[in-house]
Automatic annotation (TrEMBL):
Lineage of the organism: Bacteria, Bacillati, Bacillota, Clostridia, Eubacteriales
Keyword hit for 4Fe-4S: yes
InterPro entries associated with the record: NadA (IPR003473), NadA_sf (IPR036094)
Protein name: Quinolinate synthase
Organism of derivation: Eubacterium coprostanoligenes
Keywords, in A-Z order: 4Fe-4S, Iron, Iron-sulfur, Metal-binding, Pyridine nucleotide biosynthesis, Transferase
Record's GO cellular component terms: cytosol
Cofactor: [4Fe-4S] cluster
Record-listed E.C. numbers: 2.5.1.72
One annotated GO molecular function: 4 iron, 4 sulfur cluster binding
Pathway annotation from the record: Cofactor biosynthesis; NAD(+) biosynthesis; quinolinate from iminoaspartate: step 1/1
Record field: catalytic activity: iminosuccinate + dihydroxyacetone phosphate = quinolinate + phosphate + 2 H2O + H(+)
Function: Catalyzes the condensation of iminoaspartate with dihydroxyacetone phosphate to form quinolinate.
GO BP of this protein: 'de novo' NAD+ biosynthetic process from L-aspartate
Length: 304
């Protein structure tokens, strides 16, 4: 089947079966073209709470599909590729955080949304890269235990020096492996380019940025900017999306290694199988876990 025919079939079956297709912006262009909503983690969480269709298919990673189920328990929620997980979300479990909380009893536990539903049950509030700053600022508490992303936590802590942060040593393996050598090389090759960076990168890299933000934050900045050249310090799919959206500007990857293989697992054929009802994995959550995690997601939406 040609790509165009697959996409037409997906669109037809979505309508026939009352399906909403959500896609994270790291997904490939053929998937984004048939999605009903494309966004960063925060925007996907918001849309998950508003969707009216009886089935939702998530093209992204597992914690994103779980967030949809947490907010919409009566919907059938399907993760388009059952193997698509986020390694950062699996780095810390509930038992570890319960132990850490004993050491810091008076700290508010802020969890990046890239965590399991079970872990969220022992946290106070979730954040995403685009909402973390606003939420950490607006919390009453001035003592914050930020988990699991040390890099995002350091960036937020630096912006809010009046609050005390405790960080643990988790992070995104894709963003965190890029260092100063790549920054130097990219800046030397493109001296006129603005440098746009995701806060999951290490602090030395983030310190070199002209703009720091989430995936959609980076895209919005590049689209609105008068500059003509940009080095993109996040997953490389954003380089191609931006090049397509702004053909008169130039976009360079910070490194060819900035590829999230987990986000790349989902294919247009997976999506076709899901809308046919023969693919993906239906997300099921224990009701106690769902309600415990929902507290943190609801708070994120309220404060974000
Ligand atoms: P955002 O979508 O919040 O920018 O996060 C990127 C990411 O790594 C998703 O897992
Ligand atoms: Fe997880 Fe990093 Fe991939 Fe995002 S880019 S899904 S944080 S591994």
């Amino acid at each position: 089947m040609a790509l165009k025919d697959i996409q037409e079939e997906i669109i037809r079956l979505k309508k026939e079966n009352d399906i909403c297709l959500l896609a994270h912006c790291y997904q490939s262009p053929d998937i984004l073209e048939v999605a009903d909503f494309v966004g960063d983690s925060f925007a996907l969480s918001l849309s998950a709470s508003k969707v009216t269709n009886k089935t939702v298919i998530m093209c992204g990673v597992r914690f994103m599909a779980e967030t949809v189920k947490i907010l919409s328990p009566d919907k059938k929620v399907i993760l388009a590729n059952a193997d698509a997980g986020c390694p950062m979300a699996e780095m810390m479990d509930k038992e570890l955080i319960e132990q850490v909380k004993e050491q810091y009893p008076d700290y508010t536990v802020v969890a990046y949304v890239n965590t399991t539903s079970e872990l969220k049950t022992v946290c106070d509030v979730c954040v995403t890269s685009s909402s973390a700053l606003k939420i950490c600022r607006s919390l009453d508490s001035d003592k914050i235990l930020f988990i699991p992303d040390k890099n995002l936590g350091s960036y937020i802590a630096e912006q809010i020096p009046e609050k005390e942060f405790k960080l643990l040593s988790g992070g995104c393996p894709t963003h965190a492996r890029i260092g100063m050598a790549e920054v130097k090389k990219a800046k030397e090759a493109h001296p006129d380019a603005l440098f746009l960076v995701h806060p999951e990168c290490v602090p030395e890299v983030v310190a070199q940025a002209d703009y720091v933000g989430s995936t959609t934050g980076i895209m919005d900045f590049a689209k609105k900017s008068d500059a003509k050249e940009f080095i993109i310090g996040t997953e490389n799919s954003i380089v191609s999306h931006l090049q397509l959206a702004c053909p008169d500007k130039k976009f360079y990857p910070l490194s060819k290694d900035l590829v999230c293989h987990n986000m790349k697992l989902t294919t247009i054929v997976d999506v076709l199988n899901c809308v046919k009802g023969i693919g993906g994995e239906e997300i099921e959550l224990d009701e106690d876990v769902r309600l415990g995690a929902k507290r943190c997601i609801d708070k994120m939406i309220e404060l974000g």
